[in-house]
Amino acid sequence: MLNKVQTYFENSVLLHVPPQTSFNQYYWLKENRQEPIWLGIPKGDISKEQLELLSYLYELIDPLKTSPLSGKERQWQDFLFKEGNTTPVVAGKSRLIQFQIKNADTDSAEWDKAIKEFFLDSPFIWLDSNNGIIIQEQTELDYEEQDFQSISTTLENDFFIKIVFFLGKERQSPEEIRDSFYLERDLFSQSISLLSKESIFTFEKVFPIISAVNLAPVPRKLLDLDIIPVLKEDPELLETMKVFLENNSNVSLAAKKLYIHRNTLQYRLDKFAESTGVNVKGFHQALTVYLACLLAEQSN
Prior knowledge:
The protein is α+β, with helices and mostly antiparallel strands. The chain folds into three domains: 2-65, no CATH class; 71-207, 2-Layer Sandwich (Alpha-Beta Plaits), CATH 3.30.70; 215-299, Orthogonal Bundle (Arc Repressor Mutant, subunit A). The protein is 50% helix and 15% strand. It contains 13 helices and nine strands. The strands form two sheets. The chain has a five-stranded mixed sheet with strand order 6-7-5-8-9, sandwiched between helices. Strands 1-3-2-4 form a four-stranded antiparallel sheet. Helix 6 (174-194) packs across helix 7. The chain starts with a helix and ends with a helix.
């Protein structure tokens, strides 16, 4: 791994974005993985033999051939990744929208153009061939979660690509955005692996599942003992409890979402209460059962 290679070169630089032309004093190696990384080794610190060996193991990159950024996009990239000191000028709140492309078997130029057409006035930065960032400023914050869901569905139908978005929080200043960027990026990476069927992620959506998988051993064991087996043994009951709780414990709304009669839903709720001794009408009970549902889904 390039992380280990870095330990042999004291003055090397590790980036999570493609190197720009300002870094042409380095030899650049790229490790292709879900989250690609680039290692820059000063040209005077590596021998020809070492470079030749590493180029067999990793892709050797020429920063002069990377796609150039212009204007505000370059300013934002330099600012986010601390390559520059100029703070972008924004009017009001802004947020970062991170995205990842999956199953991209069609011409990238076509869907690249299509994605950008949804965000015409927003700085748009590709991190690699599958990952990018959209910077939305105050005047462009009218897109809501359902709008991103529509965009994802449209791109999948038209170009047969799967695109997932992480909607960052609106923040008052660029400094606040930069401080939260890597935290949100880490959450995005975890979200994709834990909620593979989802297309749109927010902090509020991923917080419960991340909390669930990181539960302390004692409460996790009690859930495994008292609740999770009941849910795993009956996938229909698991889906019912999860949908019911995600719809604010509203029987009518949950029954509609599940395409079942209210009486059928109530029967399943009673069945769950009888099997576990837990009545989900209380807030704390509902929260506990919801975490159990998320864990049961992960282990299926």
